């Protein structure tokens, strides 16, 4: 089975929506769908309201609002919830006082015996028809990209260990939905990953007793791999300005649950790679190729409508007129989609100009990919930092990248001074931002490396920017089979590429083995099936999970590696989907937490000293 999340979703929703038939003739009956706040995004990111109507779902309600529902005994109810303590309690309340004729219960993860008994006791009116586990305790973003779901701390989580259990449960549901029981590999230096991997291993071995993981790998010649990575081991990728369509939208505008809010026009647009062909085909296109494809898209629309209007509206043939009239909705939909992407691309263009990203993006690549010498970079940065129109956040990212490339450079102090000068930066750096520059390596850890690039092959390309260049020509020679390209703005390759190459072909990266330190855990069922050879066989299926947040650029990398290696199945996910602003916010939080810890530690030490004195 290929690792295609869209197919998993399609299979599960087919079970969910086509489960109920009315009468012996198999006809459908209108239904109500009860969801909770965890399953709502699972459905909303896969289905539109019109699609739900096609499945006879005429009403959707949150189960936490069950006490406000009207009694509608003529309707049957489908319940689709996450089996949390909160949702199970709401469900038992509904069963004790049912508003609908019958209930089919679907849980998006495993339900335990105590919860089942609680539901059975509440079902006094015997309205439950079935209880089915659908393992989708995660959100599908693209067909190769997923995000795990978090339970809000005030309701479910009181300790960090509980959050690890919830994270593990979400990943377990992913494995069960993909029908994979993997070898677990995680980065050795991450305490969080060590705890998470141990919990996943325990969960798999425990569920093997319930036969959940038995026979999952029967169609696989080699064991799948679950690769757990820590965002702190690659803090650079989220900082680098992306130049492909989906990544740019998230970076410059923001995507939340596939919704993009265009503030200027007070408009919200939905992005879906399953429902929008242009978007699906443009996800990973660089900005130059994107604008060219969009122009062709518009020309195609003009050609279709012109031909139809010109030839057919003057026709006296009723069948021809009928044919063109039936195309009106199709053309209207196409026109709306063109307008949507026109607004998005226009907004991207505005943001690129406003943030000076043509200059900044090239400079980021030049710094982190070692494309120019230190003195030349210093001069360019000093000139740029004198410009108050450059956003402070963009300047901050450049200083961080420079400090990674040249960790002992004296000029970093000069850079910080310019970013704290009101005449050169508006606003100036905050206290936390100043601290982040100084403590960046201590916050994210020591395993930072500069970017991988084609610099050695292409020669030093930094100096060509002294010449006038057509922007469209900057995006050229995109290699679909190789993440490393001649594209000036896309020289940087995420650290994930090295790790995946190491797993796929260990001998090809011997020089980088020292920076790729993975520990391995093998579930009992995998050991029994594959024996000692489990860890040494060629890899076919890899599920990547990044704790601390995954980026759209890493999803693009996974897509390109999959395209280049048809025999390899790759998907990627994380506990969050981040852009540079969100990643910096998490680093600010880490700085503030470390400061609070230091203050508390100093207070404790001072109290101990006072006790000794007294």
Automatic annotation (TrEMBL):
A single Pfam family it belongs to is: Sec1
Listed GO cellular component terms?
cytosol; Golgi membrane; SNARE complex
Family matches, as InterPro entries: Sec-1-like_dom1, Sec-1-like_dom3a, Sec1-like, Sec1-like_dom2, Sec1-like_sf
One GO BP on record is: Golgi vesicle fusion to target membrane
Please give the Gene Ontology molecular function terms for this protein.
SNARE binding; unfolded protein binding
Q: Which domain of life is it from?
A: Eukaryota
Q: Which PANTHER family does the annotation name?
A: VESICLE PROTEIN SORTING-ASSOCIATED
Question: Family assignment?
Answer: Belongs to the STXBP/unc-18/SEC1 family.
What is the protein name stated in its UniProt record?
Sec1-like protein
Q: Which organism is it from?
A: Suhomyces tanzawaensis NRRL Y-17324
